[in-house]
Amino acid sequence: MEQEAVVKNNKFFNKIKKNSRVFLKDNLGILIALFALCTFLSINPSTSNSFLASKNIFNVLRQISTNLYLACGMTMVIILGGIDLSVGSIIALSGCISAGCVARYNLPLPVALLIGISIGLMIGMLNGTIVAKTTIPPFIVTLATMNIVKGLAYVYTGGSPVRVVTKEWQFLGAGYIGPIPTPVIILIAVLIVTAILMNKTKFGRHMYAVGGNQQAAQFSGINVAKVKFWVHAYSGLMAGLAGVVLASRMYSGQPTAGDGAEMDAIAAVVVGGTSMAGGYGKIGGTIIGALIIGVLNNGLNLMNVNSFWQYVVKGSVILLAVYIDYIRNKKKK
């Protein structure tokens, strides 16, 4: 019995070592970039004290959490060869309706949160249905729903924030469990679920097959429409979760919340090495990509860089990541 236990332990640790080597090999470039960025901000006289402060580190983790909720769904959509532009608007609508359920209709907090998240799921299912049942490109479908959902958020709120000031409401986005921010705890659970879906399920294998070659996947018996539907539904679900967490953090549902959030999510996914051509991507790379985007945003703010120039910097990072992806695909061909 002892020998069997030793053999099992050895197999377990060997598997961890193998997976760690593969992870480092696949993400060495972006890990070096993240390390270099953190080192620069740590030694820069204008940011060294503030960047390394525990309060700032927790603040960065809290901000990254919202982006990573979106990026988990966006990774799966981009692996399919699509894109989801509606997630930023879903953040606004789900947050406003969830806050309204508490402030206007006096519903219990769990019910309000569930309604907000369900709003995101339903919009994702709408996207998935249209993408799966038609040949309309996902870019056009989600561009349309982005505007529809954003308009609905303004119609519901009249353009004004829906304020909620109870401590119970604030706990989800601004609270702590021990020393760790609540959104980070939620993020850990989301990452585990996403990793299992992508790497350990038949659904994940089908997703990669459809992204790699849709026609071949269809000939092999995979229900392509079903895969597309559930991937977009999951993206909407993650956006709904991000919406209620962000509304909790801001003490209100705001129709302007989520503006540009889809760009940060796409940036995290692309910087993390997911191919825009579809068929390839790992959630581990997306995590590193989100850390790079989050630390970059934080560093630019600490250095008091003009917000206009921040758009230029982030756009340049996305362009560089896409160009690297282009070179990599060219070499494979």
From TrEMBL:
Give the location in the cell: Cell membrane
Single GO molecular function: transmembrane transporter activity
Where is it mostly found? membrane
Q: Where are the transmembrane segments?
A: 28-47, 68-93, 105-126, 138-156, 176-198, 229-251, 308-327
What GO cellular component entries does it have?
plasma membrane
Entries under InterPro entries matching the protein? ABC_transp_permease
Give yes or no: UniProt keyword Cell inner membrane: no
Q: Name one Pfam family in it.
A: BPD_transp_2
Keyword annotations for this protein, in alphabetical order, are: Cell membrane, Membrane, Transmembrane, Transmembrane helix
The membrane topology noted for this protein in its Swiss-Prot or TrEMBL record is:
Multi-pass membrane protein
Q: Which ranges of the sequence are coiled-coil?
A: none
Record protein name field:
ABC transporter permease
- Species per Swiss-Prot/TrEMBL record: Holtiella tumoricola
